[in-house]
């Protein structure tokens, strides 16, 4: 996103570069002791043709599951295991609105501690086909489920009279806005959501500046630089927010140069001052040469007022001075 920002009799352009940061998540062994009758086996060839569509009042997830032949087993129905997640990524047992297998609805719903199992043992339901079947599965989900966490997981199952066999090849994770089949070995650990941060800033006008050292603090709400995000994507994660300058950095100062004479330089640095939320005021110093990280505010928004520190030489030539900053936002290692 490009943004033109005026600084005093100085033209300053600011270009915001946002990064979608892939977070590292920790895998763990799926707990197989969910119930005495849960078993694991290679019952499916995989998951394909995943799609997710928002119809306004609900979200529809579709996919194909390549169920392998179950002849010679105690299977009475194919099963679809539905996983949803809390805001912290913990498994939930929230029900889907509807689950269909080759167009036929599930008649049996089993709610377990960490998932919901859908099946149908009724004859001629289509769910009890024991041969190889590349089944079309459709799941309708409440918008609120994906508002809490942006994805759900689905796992193949064979439901018998005394046991339920889950596919040992894991589950497929389907995320809002992504029509991709992301197979995860352990559905108890969903992929970390993408971090989406948008930045808004006004045009900054410092007016006329005079020789000498001075601070110019733009305190009105209309002058704030604001970051917007979803809470779940930033929870407990420090971010390094920095800016590189077109004119470079000299002795930890940015440099605004005269548009007509690049040898004429005004050194400056910038402090972004956040709101006081009781736990201390958040401050960002640019240049952030130490790569200092901060935690953003809860509520999906953090705003900062800019304070410029200018060291204007006494013999500076009048004119328009400018610099270009590129903002970089990354998670702190």
Q: Could you outline the blueprint of secondary structure elements for this entry?
A:
Elements: E1 2-7, E2 10-17, E3 38-41, E4 44-54, E5 59-67, E6 75-85, E7 91-92, E8 98-101, E9 104-105, E10 108-111, E11 116-119, E12 133-141, H1 143-148, E13 151-160, E14 164-167, E15 171-175, E16 182-184, E17 198-200, E18 212-217, E19 225-228, H2 231-234, E20 239-245, E21 249-250, E22 253-258, E23 265-276, E24 281-286, E25 293-294, E26 301-312, E27 321-331
Protein architecture, described:
The protein is mostly beta strands and 333 residues long. The protein folds into two domains: 2-22 and 195-331, Immunoglobulin-like, CATH 2.60.40; 38-184, Immunoglobulin-like (Sandwich). The protein is 3% helix and 50% strand. It contains two helices and 27 strands. It has helices spanning 143-148, 231-234; strands at residues 2-7, 10-17, 38-41, 44-54, 59-67, 75-85, 91-92, 98-101, 104-105, 108-111, 116-119, 133-141, 151-160, 164-167, 171-175, 182-184, 198-200, 212-217, 225-228, 239-245, 249-250, 253-258, 265-276, 281-286, 293-294, 301-312, 321-331. Strands 1, 2, 17, 18, 19, 20, 21, 22, 23, 24, 25, 26 and 27 form a 13-stranded mixed sheet that branches. The protein is rod-shaped. The two termini are 25 Å apart.
């Amino acid at each position: 996103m490009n943004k033109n920002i005026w600084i005093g009799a100085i033209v300053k352009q600011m270009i915001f570069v946002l990064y979608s940061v892939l977070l590292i998540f920790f895998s763990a062994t799926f707990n197989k002791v969910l119930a005495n009758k849960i078993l694991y086996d290679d019952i499916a060839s995989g998951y394909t043709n995943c799609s997710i569509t928002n119809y306004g009042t609900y979200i529809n997830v579709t996919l194909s599951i390549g169920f392998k032949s179950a002849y010679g087993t105690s299977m009475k129905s194919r099963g679809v295991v539905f996983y949803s997640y809390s805001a912290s990524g913990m498994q939930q047992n929230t029900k889907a609105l509807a689950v269909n297998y080759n167009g036929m609805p599930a008649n049996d719903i089993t709610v377990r501690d960490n998932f919901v199992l859908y099946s149908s043992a009724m004859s001629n339901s289509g769910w009890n086909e024991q041969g190889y079947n590349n089944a079309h599965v459709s799941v309708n989900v409440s918008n609120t489920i994906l508002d809490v966490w942006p994805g759900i997981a689905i796992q193949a199952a064979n439901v018998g009279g005394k046991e339920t066999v889950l596919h040992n090849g894991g589950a497929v994770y389907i995320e809002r806005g992504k029509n991709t089949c992301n197979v995860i070995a352990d559905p108890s650990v969903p992929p970390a959501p993408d971090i989406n941060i948008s930045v808004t800033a006004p045009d900054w006008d410092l007016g006329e500046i005079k020789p000498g050292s001075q601070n110019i603090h733009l305190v009105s709400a209309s002058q704030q630089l604001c970051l917007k995000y979803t809470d779940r994507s930033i929870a407990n994660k420090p971010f390094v927010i920095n800016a590189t300058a077109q004119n470079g950095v000299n002795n930890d100062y940015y440099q605004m140069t005269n548009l007509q004479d690049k040898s004429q330089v005004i050194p400056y640095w910038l402090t972004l001052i956040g709101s006081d939320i009781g736990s201390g005021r958040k401050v960002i110093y640019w240049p952030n040469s130490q790569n200092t990280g901060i935690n953003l505010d809860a509520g999906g928004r953090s705003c900062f007022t800019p304070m410029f520190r200018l060291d204007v030489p006494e013999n500076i030539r009048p004119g328009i001075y400018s610099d270009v900053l590129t903002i970089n936002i990354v998670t702190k290692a």
